[in-house]
């Protein structure tokens, strides 16, 4: 009996020693998969640019919403057959597109294996759709103004026809994509917040009155980055208002505090109101996010990156030339 107890004790010690190593190996494998996903998307973006001479737009505004840049690069991700079934000039939730079922399809390179919710469908009145973990760079705050068709300082905007020559800071110095979390809390369609970049989360809370809220205690209540084929920044993009993984707390009327994103005016819902957005890059990898640059390279950026540097990384023409790692 004593010998058996000794054996069990040794086995317990071995398990205690081996388990952390196994967990660390799994985390490393998931990080490598995440990086590879971004590399594959980067190839697709550049193949799109080679074919069209411009990078894919973040959407096309015709008085309604349209398909995201993710949807536009489908043929370059070995999804040509599915791409041929949809109409990009119609909302993803238009009956024609819903009938194809493409919006419910999970494209593996769009989701990070470390996100526990990435396999879940999002359900709403418009239909069922898959979430995403990689958002395109919509710049530092201002996104789009339908009155004069101007857009912000990022690389993927509504109606943009932007080639490499437009990115004067250099492709290797400018962000293309960064990680985002699925089922993110957010609110949108508020009073115009103006061009001043928010200094903190308290500034955003000033505009919550009358907003449309997409947040709540249930998973499906939180709708940010849940629609891979939809073009608005809170679904398919990120901005550099806040540093990676920075908490953006908002105390809602239900007594709960949510880590939020913000879109002042959902692109495609107004001919007169501009869009400003604070959509934070977030990751399930501890202390960092993976990001892809416009030259297709993939690097990690830590949470401690200086905010001025992070914002400089997001501008295509701000005359900054020093990337952060």
From TrEMBL:
Domain DUF1559 residue range list: 23-307
Superkingdom to which the source organism belongs: Bacteria
Gene3D superfamilies: Glycoprotein, Type 4 Pilin (3.30.700.10)
Record protein name field: DUF1559 domain-containing protein
